[in-house]
Amino acid sequence: MDALQSLLQKSFVRQVAEARFDLLMSVKEYASEHLRTEGRYGGSGQSALYSAEARHGAYFSGLSERLAAIGKGIELDNFVAACRRAVLRRDAEVAANALERAWGLLRMRGPFATGVELASVVRDTPGIGPASVALVEWIAGAALSDCGRDLDAVPRFEASLVGAREIGDRRQECRALIGLGLLDIHAGRFDSSRARLDAALVIALEIEDPVLLSDVHNRLGTVDWSVENRRDARSHYETAVGFAREAGDRHREGSMLGNLAGLHFDEGNLDESLSGWEAALAAAREMGDRRLEANTLGNLGLLYEGQDRFAAALDQLNAALVVARDLGHSGLECNVLDNLGRVYIGLARFDEASDHLEAALANARGRGDQHSEALVMTDLGLLSARQARFSDARRCLDAGELLLRAVSDQTSLGVLLCVRAETENLAGSLDTARAALAEAETIAGAIEAAPSSELGRAITRVHRLLVRSSTA
Q1: Which of 45, 76, 222, 396 has the CB geometry, 3.0–4.6 Å to 105, for a possible disulfide?
Q2: What range does the domain containing 158 cover?
Q3: Is 275 buried (19+), middle (13-18) or exposed (0-12) by CB count in 10 A?
Q4: C-alpha angle 211/102/118, rounded to 5°?
Q5: What are the distances in angstroms from CA 440 to CA 345, 414, 445?
Q6: How many angstroms separate the CA atoms of 83 and 95, rounded?
Q7: Quick one: 219 and 262 in the same domain?
Q8: CATH number at residue 83
């Protein structure tokens, strides 16, 4: 009875909240109509509406970033409205400041395309100053990158960097360098990324900004992780968490905890990775950060897939896919589609696996993301092998291997070689299978991959397959 009563109370509260929201919107529409209509009361009319909108814009564009994020993005519509109205009034500085507050929420809640569109109209506002141009160009770059349009994002970040340096805006210069460093990571240009991020770190230390310090260390951690330097990666991620906590930024703290969890997963520390992702998910839901929530759900799905807990993996991944598409987060959508394909391979539901993997491949190629393309090609190779289409499997694996060697991803290359070994084993070419497995084992030794890591588990699985084939 207590449970039923609690459920009824929650339902009632939700209905009341919805009714209040509907009433609030009705009151706003009523007030707006009276405000803009001449003769409704003394002073009403277009000038009164203009003054009210100007006050609205000044208030919302002037809020601190921390205050802007309060309430799980409840004020997003107000920030967007303040931005659009300021553009119409040609109040470029208010428009840029409102855009910055809006983007802080859009990057957490989506859709990212709105950030692209708003940045475009604000950038074209007559009278916009150089500081606002540098800010808006940075937002445009970030929004384009989140939409999977890295090539379009590069000139926006570069314009922000040039503009920030011309006016001596060190904070904006640092943010632009971090943005360009991230694009370099996406493209596998790790030396260039490190150079940009090292320069950004100098600035962040100079101005003693914990948010920027958290962001720089986070990206440096990703560079080190990408080149198999896990010890330094862990140090950077832990430092990033510390600065996020110093800044009181739960969003960043959750993101950094999620990255640490991913590193634990890569090393085969599954209990630590599960704990970290659960902490990241709690932070995401506390802050209303749908981006972090979707990313974490996708990671949990990957963890469950590695444990052959396919039903649980499907639940997490399908939930992540819905949010990724709502956000317009093309890169996350690609990763989730790929992981769903792997789950369906494990379930021997090959048609569904093919649908998801082909969609992931089209996504990766459309964004020019060769690293993601290589990962998908590995899984397409596995799918073809399981269907006894060995020529197709070899074609996929050859293409994936070429790409992975180009970006120096040794872990993923080792996993691909394990798939190649399984393919050749199924095709009856045991010597070729053993050679591929031996190369994977050499890579695992060089990068000190633990037996419980993804690569370590792949080697163990394929070794057992070869033993069975040798004794059959």
Answers
A1: 76
A2: 20-168
A3: middle
A4: 120
A5: 22, 5, 9
A6: 4
A7: yes
A8: 1.25.40
User: What is the CATH classification number for the domain harbouring 210?
Assistant: 1.25.40.10
How many domains, the chain?
2
Q: Taking the CB of residue 439, how many other CB atoms lie within 10 A of it?
A: 16
Whether 193 and 159 share a structural domain = no
Query: Does residue 255 form part of some domain?
Result: yes
Residue with tokens 């798939």: 419
d(C-alpha 405, C-alpha 412), whole Å: 10
Which pLDDT tens digit goes with each residue over 184-221?
Answer: 998 889 999 999 999 999 999 999 999 999 999 999 99
What pLDDT digit, counting tens, does each position of 269-283 carry? Answer: 889 999 999 999 999
The answer on 189 and 121 residing in a single domain is no
As a whole number of Å, the CA-based R_g of the chain is 25
* Distance (Å) of CA 177 to CA 162, 203, 299: 10, 10, 28
For residues 344 and 337, give the distance between their C-alpha atoms in angstroms, rounded to a whole number: 11
Pairwise CA distance, residues 411 & 447, whole Å: 8
Clarify whether residues 97 and 150 are in a common domain: yes
Q: Could you tell me if 32 and 139 lie in one domain?
A: yes
Q: What's this model's pTM, rounded to 2 decimal places? A: 0.82
285-304, pLDDT tens digit by residue?
A: 988 899 999 999 999 999 99
The reply to whether 68 and 145 lie within a common domain is yes
